Amino acid sequence: MQHQVLPLSLRMTGAILSAMSRPFPVTTAKLFYRLYCTPPALKLRPVHQQFRDQAVLQHLEVTSYPFDNAPLKVTTYRWGTTGPKVLLLHGWGGSPLHFKQLISSMVAQGYRVVSYDGPAHGLSGGKRTNLVQWMHVLEQVMQQEGPLHAIVGHSFGGLNAALTLSRKNVHVPRLLMLSTALSAPVFFDEALRLFRIHPVVMPVLHQLIRQRLKEDLSEMDMHRYINNIKADKIWMAYDTTDTLAKATEIDDYLQQYPAIQSLRITGDGHFRIMRHEAVLQGILAVLAADVT
């Protein structure tokens, strides 16, 4: 998140949270939690709407949380009818349709592509969501979709995939991550600093997450799962100019996790990396590579 690109409404919300954070930490934590469980509205461009028309749309029914069996509708998208199946995971506020160039390339190479709108995104159910729910939903989608050739995740979708493969009883031959955030706790810390929210709010926020999601925020961190991602081949692409998934942090992580292969580019930032030619070719090469 970058201060200079925040909309005025969000900057005003940040100013209010900052002012009330020290005298009212509990209320601030609740409002902050609600804000960061609410994805931004997304308006698809005509080119993406046209690409959606080429997909086969279906619906899966999953449960909302490990501790809540309330049904949740998940809308899936499918391209291609034969070949190895690849699952794509979009990021926070994103859409499967943002993988347009990659999907076209994969279908041309003989892959079947499946993706879905994350909870509270696109045509899927829910108004608010979080990483705990995304992991639970991904685990169920993997079980329902059967054997996968690979998972490709962008940003929050990459973090979701890595944590799910580390913490759940699921495995995939190939995991590919693009501009992937590494740590939910770091993200929250940076957001609190960005909004100038007093540090007294953070422990209250941790407690709130434990109460509502039955999880510890500190566990949502890939550094805790070095060498524990259940994938035979792991590949990561990132950009040195990305201000959301910072290259210096990823460089350090890769030093700790040498089994991960990587591609480091410069100049396309957080979102355009999804259509960078070298990244597209790198993905296709990993998909075609033997995992043994």
TrEMBL record:
GO molecular function: hydrolase activity
Domain AB hydrolase-1: 86-210
UniProt GO cellular component terms: membrane
Keywords: Hydrolase
Matches recorded under SUPFAM superfamilies: alpha/beta-Hydrolases
Entries under PANTHER family matching the protein: HYDROLASE, PUTATIVE (AFU_ORTHOLOGUE AFUA_2G14860)-RELATED, MONOACYLGLYCEROL LIPASE
Name of the protein in question: Alpha/beta hydrolase family protein
Species, as recorded: Chitinophaga ginsengisegetis
